[in-house]
UniProtKB/TrEMBL annotation:
InterPro entries: PRTase-like, PRTase_dom. It comes from the Eukaryota. Residues 2-71 form the Phosphoribosyltransferase domain. CDD domains: PRTases_typeI. This is Phosphoribosyltransferase domain-containing protein.
Length: 74
């Protein structure tokens, strides 16, 4: 099952900020990947996106790292 976007409201100048993406649990990484793609579509540089989670599965971490290698560059 793919995640579904229900609502989106971002500041017009979000591309100028560092963005913390909060996801309580990351199992497959699909929801986080969708959110990251939306941020990238709004010109937020990948290296300015930080994913914070209380619980992440190993496959979820690998999926995010493979799809967005600059997230883990620091």
């Amino acid at each position: 099952m793919e995640p579904e976007l229900y609502y989106l409201r971002l500041p017009k100048d979000i591309d100028k900020y560092k963005v913390m993406l909060l996801d309580a649990t990351v199992a497959t990484g699909a929801a986080a990947m969708m959110a990251i793609r939306i941020l990238l579509d709004h010109d937020v540089p990948e290296e300015n996106i930080y994913v914070l989670s209380l619980l992440m599965s190993e496959p979820g971490v690998h999926a995010l790292a493979y799809a967005f290698p600059k997230l883990l560059s620091d």
